[in-house]
Amino acid sequence: MSSEPNSTVVSSPCIGVCAMNEETGLCEGCFRTIDEIREWWDMSPQQRHEVKERLAQRQIEIARFDD
Question: What is the pTM of this model?
Fold first, then answer.
């Protein structure tokens, strides 16, 4: 499985910790919004890569906020 942006296979960021945080509107496990979770299987590989890039930034922002 490749992590290249043009790859046709992009793994789900789900880690099985599925709980929506009411404050942030994000899943506690994967940091996706409910819309991103719901639409994941209909997204193109490029759209999935874009979501995963946003997730990384969200994790950083939440970590800063928690400190």
Answer: 0.79
- Neighbouring CB atoms inside 10 A of 52's CB total 19
Give residues with Cβ within 8 angstroms of 6, minimum separation 6.
45, 46
Residue 12 is encoded by which pair of tokens?
A: 């789900």
User: Which tens digit of pLDDT belongs to each residue from 33-65?
Assistant: 999 999 999 999 999 999 999 999 999 988 887
Residues 15-27: b if buried by 16+ CB within 10 A, e if exposed: eeeeeeeeeeebb
Return the residue matching tokens 């942030």: 24
CA distance 28 to 31: 6
Q: What token pair was written down for 36? A: 């991103």
